[in-house]
């Protein structure tokens, strides 16, 4: 039979029967709680190696450990973005660079319209083109992209229908994941538009 064990404040301490058949306080190292493992043995939280919680067969202890680890990662990310002087979170936004912006008055015929070489070394990270054809005619778009290590400049050509927009990312042009030096854009209409505007932007993180 268990003997009554009291804490410093005179409160009863829960007990359990150990493998020797004697009773001891239900607590672990430094006051850590204990649970019953799969085999019925008493295990101290934080002191045993558990099955991988990510595999779907982990114990509750493993799941708790995994959750604690994930929370720690989130706290690290938040702390790195937190500005204690202002009490706000710092966020990084996509920075667009205007490559071409033309209205229909600038595209009066079917001649190609070129942007010229645009320095985009200030744009970092994963990048993409945002293309808006607000004109009443379909547009042929050609993109010349020059990375900082390859000045050959891969070209991409496509047709953008009237009054539509599209995103051209690295799944189409893998070079957009590389550090870029210069981009150049050409737009061409088979029939001169009478209304609308054309806009091409390169979006990425501020360098």
- Average pLDDT value? 74
How many domains comprise the coordinates?
2
The CATH class of the largest domain is identified as Mainly Beta
And the CATH topology of the largest domain?
Jelly Rolls
End-to-end distance:
72 Å
Query: Major β-sheet, in short?
Result: 5 strands, antiparallel
Shape, per Cα inertia axes: rod-shaped
Task: Report the radius of gyration as a whole number of Å.
Answer: 32 Å
- The structure class reads mainly beta
Q: Low-confidence segments, ≥5 residues, pLDDT <50?
A: none
Strand content: 35-45%
Second-tier CATH architecture of the largest domain? Sandwich
> What is the ordering of alpha helices and beta strands?
EEEEHEEEEEEEEEEE
Question: Tally the helices: what do you get?
Answer: 1
Number of strands: 15
* Percentage of residues assigned to helices: 10-25%
Tell me about this structure:
The chain folds into 2 domains: 69 residues, no CATH class; 112 residues, Jelly Rolls (Sandwich). It is mainly β and 207 residues long. Helices cover 11% and strands 38% of the residues. It has 1 helix and 15 strands; from the N terminus they run ββββαβββββββββββ.
List keywords for this structure.
single chain, mainly beta, Jelly Rolls, five-stranded antiparallel β-sheet, four-stranded antiparallel β-sheet
């Amino acid at each position: 039979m268990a003997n009554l064990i009291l804490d410093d404040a005179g409160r009863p301490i829960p007990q359990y029967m150990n493998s020797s058949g004697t009773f001891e306080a239900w607590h672990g190292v430094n006051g850590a709680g204990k649970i019953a493992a799969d085999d019925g043995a008493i295990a101290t939280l934080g002191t045993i190696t558990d099955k991988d919680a990510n595999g779907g067969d982990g114990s509750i202890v493993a799941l708790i450990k995994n959750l604690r680890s994930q929370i720690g990662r989130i706290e690290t990310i938040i702390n790195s973005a937190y500005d204690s002087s202002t009490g706000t979170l710092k966020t990084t936004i996509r920075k667009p660079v205007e490559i071409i912006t033309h209205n229909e008055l600038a595209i009066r015929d079917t001649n190609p319209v070129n942007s010229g070489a645009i320095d985009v070394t200030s744009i970092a990270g994963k990048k993409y083109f945002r293309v808006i054809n607000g004109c009443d005619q379909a547009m042929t778009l050609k993109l010349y992209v020059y990375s900082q290590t390859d000045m050959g400049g891969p070209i991409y050509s496509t047709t953008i229908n009237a009054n539509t927009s599209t995103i051209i990312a690295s799944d189409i042009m893998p070079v957009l994941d590389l550090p870029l030096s210069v981009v150049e854009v050409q737009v061409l209409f088979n029939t001169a538009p009478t209304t609308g505007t054309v806009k091409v932007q390169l979006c990425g993180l501020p360098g």
